[in-house]
Amino acid sequence: MQYFLVTYGCQMNRSDAERVAAVLEGMGFSPAANESEANVLGVVACSVRQKSADRVYGRSLAWNERSDRGQIITFVTGCVLERDRGKLAKLFDIQFPIQDLPKLPELLISGGFALSADFVFRQSVMSDARTDYWKIAPLAASAHQAWIPIQNGCNRFCAYCAVPYTRGREVSRDPKEILDEIACLLERGYRSFTLLGQNVNSYGRDWSSGEPAFARLLGDAARLIEKSGREALIYFTSPHPSDMQREVFELMAAHPAIARQAHLPMQSGDDAVLRRMHRSYTMERYREIVGWVRELVPDAALFTDIIVGFPGETEEEFEHTREAVQDLAFDMVFTAVYSPRAGTAGAKLPDDIPREEKSRRLGVLQDLLKTMGAEKKKRFIGTTQRVLVDGAAGADIVSARTNGLIPVHVRIPGVNPAEFIGQFIDVRVISASALSLAAEYTAAS
Ligand code: SF4
Asked: For the domain 132-375, what is the CATH superfamily, name and number?
């Protein structure tokens, strides 16, 4: 019996998909090389953009038109808006919130899938608690890089975002379980760990003390890695600027196991737009946080997200964003054009910026980022960087990332690039472009 899983959206969905795969393989399924061979077909859905939601419908329609439709079972999980649930229930055989993943074997049986008589579920299914699905050991897609979910849901209700409606309120994972998972993966040779959550800095706020516990968790994870004597790095994404603590950067400065990289979503550089987005911080506060990074970890790479064309964004407000992007000299900026998501506060505002104007603003930012990105990366030329190899990028070339997650292409003449995947190596940077570096190999770990 074979399964085929399609995953849309963010790292959290990819991490969830690793647990879905673990359950299916625990049931005796193996992954199908292509969907036409699969008996069970599933989607881990994303509702953050209309385009992602449309792709989920596209998949279900294609599967429902198959001539062997009676012999396959389809399911959907992940981020699904309340208003879409009824429609998806008619298109897929099974729909479940990701927290109900431990029940997937039962759901497949009730959906008509017959288990073989010798079936033994290899993962123990726990109680009905909302955090049980994290106890399922994931079937990691990578052999050296791990996503470690620490939290699910969000209490922030940013005006453009569907996450609080699809994943619900924040639930924090037990810290012991997180540290045990890291220890186990470290032992198995994993070299990079990303603590994942929708707002990692409010980790622990849902516990009875109500105190954020993210800095403590980050420090404990760093100490665990450092005590092990193994070389590995810990990342986190994403924090919300309103919940960010200076202590996080003090830890980054003190612990070599914490990667010198922070993804701090700004979204807009204008206070009025931030208010309309319900982002609950001002640019003064945002600049204060960037100041902590520059003061405490001057070599840290700073990433951000920007949305252009939010309802009512004037030319002057957009100009404030452009100026902030220029002043704050980010290492990487992920840009997006605003599109309303049903049920959010933003969807009640008139989507009044014409599509051409949104594209023009996006183009202005992208042109700026091209020039700035190349200029900023020049500082690496001639330096030696310790990078983690994550793939082959051609004959004699590997793709890797610096400690700050800047992509690097490294030429290693006369070797099979695959031998280096998952290793830290020292490289000398020879050139820089807007998005990446080129380097030559100097030594392996
Ligand atoms: S902090 Fe805002 S943007 Fe991030 S998941 Fe929560 S509601 Fe969405």
From this structure: tm_1862 like domain (3.80.30.20)
Residue 124: band (very low, low, confident or very high) from pLDDT cuts 50, 70, 90 = very low
Q: Residue 161 CA: which ligand 1 atom is closest?
A: 8
Does ligand 1 lie within 6 Å of residue 151's CB atom? no
381-444: CATH number: 2.40.50.140
Per-state percent for the chain, helix, strand, coil, to nearest 5:
40, 20, 40
Ligand 1 pocket, 164 CB below 6 A? yes
Going by pLDDT thresholds of 50, 70 and 90, the confidence category of residue 122 is very low
How would you write 73-141 as a 3-class SS string? EEEEEECCCHHHHHHHHHHCCEECCHHHHHHHHHHHHHCCCCCCCCCCCCCCCCCCCCCHHHHCCCCCC
| Mean residue pLDDT across the chain | 91
Alpha helices in 121-213 (DSSP H): 163-166, 175-187
Pick the residue with more confidence: 256 or 128?
A: 256
The answer to whether domain 2-110 has CATH 3.40.50.10490 is: no
pLDDT at 111: 67
The CA-atom distances, in angstroms, between 247 and each of 73, 193, 279 are 49, 20, 22
pLDDT at 49: 75
Query: What is the tens place of the pLDDT at every residue in 394-414?
Result: 888 999 999 999 999 999 988
- Neighbour count for residue 29 (Cβ, 10 Å): 20
Cα–Cα distance between 113 and 103 in angstroms, integer? 14
Distance set, CA 165 to CA 78, 315, 316 (Å): 12, 31, 32
Q: Which atom of ligand 1 is nearest to the CA of 164?
A: 7
Structure tokens, 147:
């996503």
Distance 65 CA to ligand 1 centre (A): 36
How many Cα atoms are found within 13 Å in the side-chain-facing hemisphere of 17?
A: 23
Quick one: which H or E segment has residue 242? Answer: none
Backbone angles phi, psi at 27, to 5 degrees: -85, -5
Q: What is the DSSP string of 398-429?
A: EEEE-TT--EEEEE-TTS-GGGGTT-EEEEEE
Residue 118 CA, ligand 1 centroid: distance in Å: 44
Distances (CA, A) of 71 to 37, 109, 111, 334: 11, 13, 11, 42
Whether the per-residue pLDDT at 112 is higher than 70: the answer is no
Domain definitions of the chain by residue range: 2-110, 132-375, 381-444
